[in-house]
Design brief:
Layout: H1 3-7, H2 13-29, E1 35-39, H3 45-53, E2 58-60, H4 66-78, H5 102-107, E3 108-114, H6 122-135, E4 141-146, E5 148-149, H7 157-169, E6 176-177, H8 178-185, E7 190-198, E8 202-209
Parallel strand pairs: 1-2, 1-3, 3-4, 5-6
Antiparallel strand pairs: 4-8, 7-8
Helix pairs in contact: 2-3
């Protein structure tokens, strides 16, 4: 393997910290087969970890950032997963319809979104829910991990400080409220069926296509 390929791999500290707890929950939530679409896959460390941990599914990573996609693909090669795991898709959640290959559309059984909603504008959340409602088959799940407010209140002082720093960086960013998510779900064929407490004051939302 060339040094260039090695250099393309990015390392995100948060990914190493949270992939164990997220994976433990995913083991209870993922389908028995089919394709899992991960949005905003970042470095690709989650993607290769979960493909290795859950070989019964195809883990389709995606990201709009070309450096991130290069890192994802480099991680796939580094872990020897090129024969079982597709290359990263160029997918921006807000740009619709999502450019999914027909094979992915036909086999899609779950959508996973980790640490995206608070570093994107509100329209991104709406697009995530609406597009997932269109693409997911009945009974399948959209799984969202990240920090959230409950009834307008932060779940910790650290999340409140984090939210303030996000909004200072970009006024369109910020920790989203679960009540607002539920409002967006009301007109859609989606229902929140789970809310799991995770380490570091994060939550995992489980939303089912009905």
């Amino acid at each position: 393997m060339s040094e260039l390929t090695m250099d393309q791999r990015l390392f995100f500290p948060a990914t190493e910290r949270n992939r164990g707890p997220i994976g433990d929950l995913l083991s209870q939530l993922l389908p028995a087969s089919g394709t899992v679409l991960e949005l905003a896959s970042g470095s690709g460390e989650h993607a290769v970890c979960f493909q290795q941990r859950f070989p019964h599914v195809i883990w389709q990573a995606s990201d709009p950032d070309p450096d991130h996609r290069a890192s994802i693909d480099a991680w796939i090669r580094h872990q020897g997963l090129s024969d079982v795991m597709p290359a990263a898709l160029n997918l921006d959640v807000e740009e619709r319809p999502w450019p999914l290959p027909q094979t992915i559309r036909e086999s899609l059984k779950a959508v996973v979104c980790i640490n995206l909603l608070h570093i994107s504008p509100p329209d991104c959340t709406a697009a995530l829910l609406e597009e997932s409602a269109l693409l997911l088959p009945t009974g399948s799940r959209l799984i969202i991990y990240g920090p959230f407010l409950r009834n307008g209140q932060h779940t910790s002082a650290s999340n409140e400080a984090f939210d303030a720093s996000l909004r200072q960086r970009n006024p369109a960013w910020g920790v989203r409220d679960l009540a607002w998510i539920d409002e967006l779900l009301q007109p859609l064929p989606l229902k929140r069926v789970g809310c799991h407490t995770m380490p570091a004051n994060n939550l995992t939302l489980v939303i089912e296509r009905v």
